[in-house]
Structure formats: C-alpha cells, structure tokens
Amino acid sequence: MRICIGIILHLLANAGALASNELDSLFVQLEQTISDREQYETQKESKIKSLKALREETDSNPERLFFLNNKILEEYIPYNFDSAIHYIDLNLELARKYNDFSFKHETNIHLANLLAFSGRYLESLDVVKTVNSNNLSVPLKQEYWGIYVKVFSELALFTPSKSSRDSYQQLYRNYSDSLLNILDKKSEPYLSLQEKKFRDSRMLIDCKRINTQRMALTQMGTRIYSTITFERAILYELENNTDLEKKFLILSAISDIKAAVKDNASLTKLAMLLYEEDKIDDAYKYIMFSFEDAAFYNSKLRFVQISAILPLITETYQLKSDRQKAELRKFLIIISVLSAVLLLAILAIYNQIKSLKEAKTELINANDQLRELNTNLHTTNTKLKEVNIDLVESDHVKEHYIGSFLAICSDYIDKLDDFRKMVNKNIVARKIEELHASTKSKKLIDNEIADFYNNFDNIFLHIFPNFVEKINELLVEDGKLESKKEEALSTELRIFALIRLGINDSSKIAHLLRYSVNTIYNYRVRVKNNASISRDEFEDAVMKIGTKIR
C-alpha cells in the first residue's frame, strides 16, 4: 500500500514538473510573439491595403463594391472598431443609394453583431430589430439569431437585478434553441452553443469533449482558435486548475496577436491571475499591452474590463518601483561613500608611489633596457609563431614541439633574469665601465644566434625528420645539400626549411637568419638552379614535403 502511495506521489510530482516546464515554455513563446507584434500587424495592414486597392480599381458595379466593402469589414471587425463602422456606413450608403433592402438588412445585421461584441448591447438590439428576418439567407439568419443569443447571454451575465437576469436568461435560452434548429450540428456555431449550454449547467466533461472537437476544426493564429482556447481556460477556472487556465489563456493570447485581433480578453485575464500570484512585473506588462489594444480598437467592453484591474496593477507596480528606487538610492549612497574612501586610498598610494619613484629612477632605467631586450625577443618569438606549419604529425610531435618551445622561453627568461641581475648589481656597485663593456660586446648576441640556429634545426627536423632526404630528391646529384658536422642544417637547408614553414619573403628570412637580403636571394637561386624539376615548381614541391598530398 505504501509503495502504491509512493508511486502515485512520484507521478504527481513529475506531472507538476512537466506542467511547470510547459508553462515556462509557453510564456517564452508569448514573449516572443509579443516582440513580433509589429510583424503580424503589418501583415494585417498589408491585406487590408490590397483589398482597398481592389476597391479603388472596381467600377460602379454596386454588388462588387458591396462585396469588397464586406471583405474589408471582415478584416476590421476584430482589428479596429471605428474603421469597421466606416465600412458599414459605406454599405448603408450603397443601400440607400440603390434602394436595396437586401444590402440594408445584411449591413444592419453586421452592424448589430459588431455592436454586440463590443459591449453596446442596447444599441445592437435597436439595430437588429429593424431587420426583417423573413427573407434572410441561411448564413444571415444564423448571424441574426446569434446576435440575440449574444446580447441576452451577456446581459444576463452583467445585470445586477435578479428579475432582469432571469428574464434575460429565458430570452437567451429561447433564441439559443431557435438558432440551434437552423445550424448544422457539425458546425462551429452549433458546437459553440452546445458547449455554452453544458458550461451553464456545469457539465464540464461534456464541455471539454465539445471544446476538443472545436479545436480540431481550426488552427493557431485565427480568431476562432483564440475564442475556443479562451473558453477552454474558463472551464479550468471553474475547476480551480490555475496552471491549465493560464496555459489556454496564453495560447489564446498568442493566437490573438498572430491574427492581429485587437478586441481580445485573454491577456487581461492572464494579467489578473499573475497579479494574484504577486508577479507584478509580468501582470503590468500584459495589462498595458491589453490597454494599448483596447485603445487602438476603441472597445467599450474591453475598457470596462481593463478599468477594473488596471488601477490595482498599476498602483502595485508603482509601489514596487518606488521601493526599488529607494533601495537603489540607498545603494548609490553606499557606493558613493565607498568611492570616496577608495579615492582617498588611491591618493595615498599615489603619493607613496611618487616617493618611491624618485628613489628608484636608476633601477627603472635599467629595467627599461631589459624590457626593450625582452620586447625584441618577444617580437622574434611572435614571428616564429606566425609560421604556418601544416601539422599532420602525431600528438607526440606536437607535445615535443610545445615542450621545446616552453624550454626555450624558460631559458630566455633565465638569461634575461641573469642579465637583469648583472645590470642591477653593476648599477648598485656603480660599475658603469664594466656594465658598458659587457653590453658593448657582441658575444652575447652571437651565442644567442648560435643557440637559435641549433634550437630551430632540432625542432624543425623533429617535425620533418626526412626533410634533408626529401629536398635532395628534388636536386640533381651534383647539387645535393649537406650539413656541416657541427650543424644539423646548413644555411641553404635552413632557408628552405623556413620556406617550408610558410616564410617565403627573402627579407623576412634574412632578418631571421641574420644575413643580407642579397645573400639569401643568391642562396635560393643557386639551389633552384640545381633542381631536378622545373625551377618554378621547386618551392611548391618543398612546401609539400611532410604532407600526405605530393
């Protein structure tokens, strides 16, 4: 029994974690959709612009003009109330101009529907009562009865009077039954009415079943999808399942933004939930987004809904902002005090440094000389690093090369340190003549050059052990190159070793090997004259030594 309880608790914990991860992912998706808001609005405006262009191109045919006005109206109905009214007025003017009652009735139905969905219920009833429903087409008759269903459903919801509420509910049920009789049982309007009836009766399982059917008939980014997911959120609100309520409010809001629906309610409701969870920043961001949409649309109903929550969220957000500003001011004061203390400390240290600087002038001059020597050595090492070597050898070769390089660098550091100590010692002892004599001699440089040649030869031959053999294969018998006994590579071999490393410029080679440019040029020409292949191809062949492609 304990094991079963443990398994159930584990499953519930995992389900909670998965739900949390899904919500986090949806919030990220919502933020991205909000940031792309302008893109979706541009698409909507582009579509409306295209329809308007068609309208401008049309002739005086009233039927076509009426049709195009209706198409533009369809785009404006969820997007901008005033623009929608404008195109309704244009169609009413057409109806008056041509004395066409079918134009008039259809347009009045659209007007009444728009007024009902924007919260102007009494105005909607005044308009729809002027319509003669006897000769309406089936789609218009459905819209006609749907207006009564919408109006009395909303009036029953918002009226404070019980007797009025009961009366409105009865009218809603009567008109709802009339509408159900003329609707296709598989259509979205029929399923929507059925779902509402089940929801009013709190038959939530049946509600979810129908809602799932409706969702399968549409897709994200449409006004219908936004409505269906919003109504699904209402079901979870009735079940007190806040996570799923938020999930479907987010899906509804994303769909509204993608469809450029300005007459929306999802973000407002989501902002209220987040406010109750003390997530003030997100609540404020979403309610302001909703407020901007409502202002753009000029929705009376949305303004009423938002006005009930906006002051609460705004006030809480302002209080939080004020607290943060107060804390920021406090931290700024602390930082200012610390900065002042730090400035005083810096001034004290500066005075100490200034005092020490006068006592160490001679030592600084000596260090400058050592630094210049170090810079020269660093420049030489940098140029060696710039050699482009095609490393296709094993890890052992790489490790050996790195080790050798580090050993050379360490050796140079030791030599520089010895030289620094010698200079410092002579300066302290005031042995300027001995210091001058030791720095005047070229013996140090000659020894370093010899070490440089020796190190270069050893490292290069370790990387390219068959270099001498391979380069001699490119030369005629009498022109083959040999090294002196005391050197691993001769000058000619060293020149072409540098060429193999990618240093092709004679002036750079001359600088590295401490020869004149003319000497280097003569060596290169003499070796290439002994080539067993074309002189022009010789250096390219040298570059391929040690590679897999020859």
What this model shows, in words?
It is a single chain. By secondary structure, the protein is mainly alpha-helical. The chain contains 25 helices and no strands. Among the domains are: 360-441; 463-550, Arc Repressor Mutant, subunit A (Orthogonal Bundle). The chain has helices spanning 2-35, 37-57, 62-76, 81-98, 101-117, 121-128, 138-158, 162-182, 188-200, 204-216, 223-238, 242-258, 266-276, 280-297, 300-307, 310-359, 361-385, 395-428, 432-440, 443-463, 467-472, 491-500, 506-513, 517-529, 535-543. The chain starts with a helix and ends in a 7-residue tail after the last helix.
Please describe the structure with a list of short key phrases separated by commas or semicolons.
550 residues; mainly alpha; Arc Repressor Mutant, subunit A; 25 helices; 0% strand
Sum up the overall morphology in one term: elongated
The second-level CATH architecture of one domain is: Orthogonal Bundle
- Which H/E pattern describes the elements? HHHHHHHHHHHHHHHHHHHHHHHHH
Ends: how far apart? Answer: 76 Å
Task: Give the averaged pLDDT, no decimals.
Answer: 82
Helix- and strand-based class? mainly alpha
